[in-house]
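Colleagues,

For the teaching module next term, I've prepared a clean inverse folding example: a structure given as tokens, and then the sequence designed for it. I'd like students to try predicting residues themselves before seeing the answer, so please don't circulate the second half yet.
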């Protein structure tokens, strides 16, 4: 729960009005408001539970308006639902606003920052402070520049694998428990303050990662981009072989890519996790090894299909037949065609079409 007092302490605001009870007002939304139209009496779109910022524009509008008219509108602005009113640029609070705030016991703060800068910084702070939160039993590592959440049942070796990854030069964010916030669609993982920089290794106990591996082996927070789920190796359980399928892990309504890795004594899990993270980064850059493998198989199958088709076409056109060898033992004999028998011939000689007739006397 975020209160007006915590907001004032974070930004170093100066209290102009309000008692201790008013400083306990809860801040429930990250949005801010500048009550320009409300000062003119237009409350159609007024949000009561937002922090109100009054800058140079609002101050000039108040000075040019009737004080009693501004006071009546300020009573609605400084309602019980309003967490706080902040006067920027170090200006003094206008009298109608102060009078209304005293009646409703609304906290009023002053800031030396300009309105735009304070609004931007405050929105970022509120978005993180009011973000939905959860905690998971896992390890969070920064591997090759991305946040990797390592899941697995108790005793499967998450801490030992994380320790091996730290020795390889990767950084630890949290061990055993990871606090996660959904900040504007990004899952930010942090470590509880009580165990920051510590790891529990079975058989050894608690170790101080900073003193053993240096300050560069730690990081305070990281966006969770990839999930590794460690499972016990089981031959009967089907696992992904090609990598065409991408599983998702849901955290606070957001879905993160996940890979399932079986754990066994013969496998170097830190090396396998590094390979999985590298493959994930390749996919993120547009290169998918599984689809590339599938494309290569498709191309080879298409090539073989075309070769078979060409072979069939050659057979169809007779281009693959052997040349026919003549069975005539006499070479260079012209081919002849048998004609009709001349009945007037004594010997019934056969006239050969395409051959010379023999001369008389021959």
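(Answer key — instructors only)
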């Amino acid at each position: 729960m975020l209160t007006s007092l915590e907001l004032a302490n974070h930004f170093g605001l100066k209290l102009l009005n309000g008692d201790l009870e008013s400083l306990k007002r809860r801040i429930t939304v990250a949005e801010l408001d500048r009550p320009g139209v409300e000062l003119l009496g237009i409350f159609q779109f007024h949000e009561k539970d937002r922090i109100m910022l009054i800058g140079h524009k609002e101050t000039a509008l108040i000075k040019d308006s009737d004080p009693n008219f501004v006071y009546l509108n300020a009573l609605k602005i400084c309602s019980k639902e309003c967490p706080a009113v902040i006067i920027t640029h170090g200006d003094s609070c206008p009298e109608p606003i102060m009078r209304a705030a005293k009646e409703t016991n609304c906290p009023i703060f002053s800031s030396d920052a300009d309105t735009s800068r304070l609004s931007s910084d405050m929105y970022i702070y509120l978005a993180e402070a009011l973000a939905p939160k959860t905690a998971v039993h896992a390890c969070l590592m920064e591997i090759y520049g991305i946040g990797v959440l390592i899941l697995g049942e108790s005793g499967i070796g998450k801490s030992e694998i994380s320790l091996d990854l730290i020795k390889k030069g990767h950084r630890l964010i949290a061990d055993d428990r990871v606090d996660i916030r959904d900040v504007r669609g990004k899952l930010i993982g942090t470590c509880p303050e009580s165990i920051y920089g510590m790891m529990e290794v079975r058989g050894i106990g608690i170790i101080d990662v900073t003193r053993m591996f240096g300050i560069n082996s730690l990081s305070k927070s990281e966006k969770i981009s990839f999930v590794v789920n460690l499972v016990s190796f089981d031959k009967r359980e089907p696992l992904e072989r090609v990598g065409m399928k991408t599983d998702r892990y849901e955290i606070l309504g957001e879905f993160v890519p996940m890979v399932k890795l079986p754990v066994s004594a013969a496998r170097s899990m830190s090396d396998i996790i590094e390979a999985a993270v590298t493959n994930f980064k390749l996919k993120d850059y547009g290169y998918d090894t599984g689809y590339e493998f599938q494309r290569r198989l498709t191309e080879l199958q298409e090539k073989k299909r075309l070769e078979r088709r060409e072979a069939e076409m050659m057979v169809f056109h007779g281009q693959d037949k052997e040349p026919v060898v003549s069975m005539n033992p006499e070479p260079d004999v012209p081919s002849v065609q048998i004609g009709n028998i001349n009945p007037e011939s004594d010997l019934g000689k056969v006239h050969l079409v395409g051959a010379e007739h023999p001369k008389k006397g021959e």
